[in-house]
Write a structure and sequence with these properties.
Layout lengths: L44 H15 L11 H8 L3 H13 L3 E4 L3 E4 L11 H6 L5 H23 L2 H15 L5 H18 L3 H9 L1 H12 L4 H17 L3 H19 L2 H8 L5
Antiparallel strand pairs: 1-2
Helix pairs in contact: 1-3, 2-3, 5-7, 5-10, 5-11, 6-7, 6-10, 7-9, 10-11
Length: 276
Amino acid sequence: MPSVQQSRPEFRGLRYSSQTIALRRSGSHSLGDRAVYKLVRTSRLYEQIVQQIEESIVQGTLKPGDQLPAERELAQRFGVSRTAVREAVKALREKGLVEAYSGRGTFITDGTTQAVRQSLDLMVKIGQVEGSTHLAELRAILEPEIAGLAAARIDDSELATMREAVAIMDRSNQDPDAYIEADLDFHLALAEAANNPLILSLLDSIVGLLREQRLRIFRVPGGPERGQVHHKKILEAVERHDAAAARQAMREHLQQVSSDSQGPNEKRASSKPQPN
């Protein structure tokens, strides 16, 4: 399967730096000048896809009205997960470079309109919401029912995606990037199987938070292995089309995720008896 850099000619030409710089102006008192920035060593996968598509638009290879290939095909061409493609399309929409139409596909725009969307990631990072707690609550509300719907509605291609994701996670317990992308694909396949576009939109809006949460869990000793136990239970229930078992397996998985996401101090605090 081709990598991002080996894909079609119109998606070539990645450039990024490994230098580190501090942006400070002498004599300036702007708040922004106190921040220290680093040039990225490597772009995240979706950022590389965004860059290549942007360059194709600038060069005229992709023109307003052109339709992008389907998500699955783009993932195959770039050699990345479908989650990375979804994030790239979302970023391009936020820049006003593409527009997605339900049932029709994603098209290049003329670039004159900008979509102004609230970033949940930014809300968490600047402290407007308590990220880990609220994310855990949201997942507990959504994902057991998603698993139940998926068990009733899943098709063979979505089952194949889930099985492949589990296999990748099995052999990637020393590779956080591969493991996390496969983990996201596993949950994305469940959301797709639920066959409800609003569910997909909700998960798309928090995928950045989900990635950060998974990265923290990957660093917890035994976290990936515990996660795999639950992934396989969820998969088995969905394969049997057992909605009740799928919901329960997902609840148990989210309990494990919540436990592994807590730091030692949070765990000690949560274990203290609460006042009556």
